[in-house]
Amino acid sequence: MGEAVQAGRMQAVVVTGPGRIAVEAVPVPRPRPGQVLVRLEGCGVCASNLVPWSGPDWMQFPTEPGGLGHEGWGTIEAVGEGVSGLSAGDRVAALSYHAYAAYDVADAEAVVRLPATLDGVPFPGEPLGCAVNAFKRCAIEAGQTVAIIGIGFMGALMTQLAASAGARVIAISRRPLSLEMARRMGAAETIVMDDHWRIIEAVKELTGGVFCDCVVEAVGSQWPLDLAAELTRERGRLVIAGYHQDGPRQVNMQLWNWRGLDVVNAHERDPAVYREGMREAVEAVASGKLDPSPLYTHRFPLSQLDRALDMARDRPDDFMKALVFPD
User: Which residues contact residue 96 at a Cβ distance below 8 angstroms, ignoring those fewer than 6 apart?
Assistant: First the structure.
């Protein structure tokens, strides 16, 4: 085991209140049976952190050390009893839950080994796996027309996957950078997300009045969900990939029912499905089928996680995704 582990202390971020962090020296966790200890190279910053970051009534502060971080990757430092197929020194992507730190433990079944071809390449496995899993739920086929609403990290990845599958992708987003990124990822058409009815008319014209075989809502708020239904053709598929974390939604059930839409909530909770998505994401990135590297627009030391979270919240014009790295 490394010197830091033998010394027993590491740096970890604690969220102390709404919009506030502290970096603390805490004990290095020890892997229990069936777990591995990962020396983290970095962690992605997820939009799901933003509601806890804002300090809603239900949120309890301070968080556990490293808490909220779940997009880590790094090198296995030690393995717990009963772990097979993984060894110290293996570079892995890990689905763990305290990854805003220098080390974290993860269940052995929740890590995926990274090949040598990805050495030195950032790999936030959880969101990459989510994108792959959500794409599979879309059942997109070559020749179909697909609209993707919201070109953030998830929407951009799904644009690339859909275009690679031979679909004609219409990307809809509000920021110039997002639309530029969608074109880079293979979108055939881009539309500024500004006016509800103008967008509907634009898509209607692009599709000869029949709208889209599949529409992916990748924002996570009411208006994009409303828009997504309007853009889905009769007997088409509406895929909800956005993370809706602020309570109930209203839907136009008359429209959904009249058009006979298949509605898919493309979120997974089964750990085995998570891991399979991460494994397939590793293969896709290693083979060049998927290239997330242009999307990693901002990098921060772990001690500046507050800046990274604020940027993820404010989404300045040049932002797509932030990564944090141990100091």
Answer: 38, 69, 70, 72, 104, 105, 106, 110
